Amino acid sequence: AGDTGQGARTWIKELLNQDMAFQHIKVIYPTAPARPYTPMKGALSTVWFDRYKISNDCPEHTETIESMCHGLTDLINDEIKSGITKNRILVGGFSMGGGMAMHLAYRFHRDVAGVFALSSFLNKESAVYQALNRNEGDLPELFQCHGTADELIPYSWGEETNKMLKSLGVPASLHTFPNLDHELSRTEIEKLKNWIVEKLPIEVAKSN
């Protein structure tokens, strides 16, 4: 919580020694709006949604999650209007951003190409699980990464999220990073890049 899209881009660039760029894929780093954040005693913070507390065992702040899903849907629709098909769009993020992406994809946009969530989790009674209980049809693949030394979002919360989503029919993988705290690592971003290219291969023009 508290970083911006530009901050995330810079962080990844420092880890890779270059931008996370692809010849055939546009990367967008949106920034969350500033809102009062309860875990920080109501201080304004750039967060995707509010939380009653940083715990997987409390209700979700549904109101702020819903409003953000609508805002991010506009972003997706802008890309579609510019000619990108829905099955060529991936959504994902770090920490809260990954939680946001799971809400967005599994509740409202099940026709995206995939979802990635780095050091993220869903609350035990998440609206995502409730939506998936009524699931019909294919679901986008989830690429999840988590460090075992994460002191903010325990690894067990990420693992539990992964198991729960799998049990509800999500094709999901979980990549474990020993000794990694609540941060990104170069190896992790390299793995993510490979997964992105696998999900969105260069489209070869069909010859008649």
Automatic annotation (TrEMBL):
PANTHER family: LYSOPHOSPHOLIPASE-LIKE PROTEIN 1 (PTHR10655:SF17), LYSOPHOSPHOLIPASE-RELATED (PTHR10655). This is palmitoyl-protein hydrolase. The keyword Hydrolase applies. It is an enzyme of class 3 (hydrolase). The keyword Hydrolase applies. GO terms for molecular function: carboxylic ester hydrolase activity; palmitoyl-(protein) hydrolase activity. One of its GO terms (cellular component) is cytoplasm. Belongs to the AB hydrolase superfamily. AB hydrolase 2 family. It comes from the Eukaryota. InterPro entries: AB_hydrolase_fold, LYPA1-2/EST-like, PLipase/COase/thioEstase. Keywords: Hydrolase. Its EC number is 3.1.2.22. It comes from Nothoprocta pentlandii. Residues 2-196 form the Phospholipase/carboxylesterase/thioesterase domain.
